Amino acid sequence: QLDLVESGGGLVQPGGSLRLSCTISGGTLGHYSLAWFRQAPGREREGVACQGDTNGGWYYKDSFEDRFTISGDSAENTVYLQMNILEAEDTAVYYCAATDDLDRKTTRESMCRVGIMSQVAYEYWGQGTQVTISS
């Protein structure tokens, strides 16, 4: 059973930065395709970024790439979501998700590259970490 644990959330003033971590256990980072989602209060969960090619490259949805950067540490089995210039609208619970579904890999990666992220494509989820942007 793969477990994902997010951490690093907290309260930050507008314009500030946070780095979220997603550490996996029970598996090897490179064996899975990962994604970040977030859910703001009263809104549906939305995609932030996903791995969308055979090299594990990250693709950012909408304009997140302007302020967000994802990196990984395979030795630590951890991926990081660096978020800069945070805005009140970034307030949300941030989730890390993973899948090892090879049957739908091609379709999932193609969709990811054009900014389409589906929650149902990922069967493993962390508990989420709360990010609050407020002065």
Walkthrough of the structure:
- With 135 residues, the chain is mainly beta.
- The chain contains 1 helix and 11 strands; from the N terminus they run βββββββββαββ.
- Strands 2, 4, 5, 6, 9, 10 and 11 form a 7-stranded mixed beta sheet that branches.
- The radius of gyration is 14 Å and the shape is globular.
Radius of gyration: 14 Å
Return residue spans where pLDDT drops below 50 for at least 5 consecutive residues: none
Q: What pattern of helices and strands is seen along the backbone?
A: EEEEEEEEEHEE
Mean pLDDT: 95
Class from secondary-structure proportions: mainly beta
Instruction: Choose one word for the global shape.
Output: globular
How would you summarize the topology of this molecule?
Layout: E1 3-7, E2 10-12, E3 18-25, E4 33-39, E5 46-51, E6 58-60, E7 68-73, E8 78-83, E9 92-99, H1 105-113, E10 124-125, E11 129-133
Parallel strand pairs: 2-11
Antiparallel strand pairs: 1-3, 3-8, 4-5, 4-9, 5-6, 7-8, 9-10, 9-11
What is the compact description of this entry?
The chain is mainly β. It has one helix at residues 105-113; strands spanning 3-7, 10-12, 18-25, 33-39, 46-51, 58-60, 68-73, 78-83, 92-99, 124-125, 129-133.
Question: Key terms for this structure?
Answer:
135 residues; mainly beta; 11 strands; 7% helix
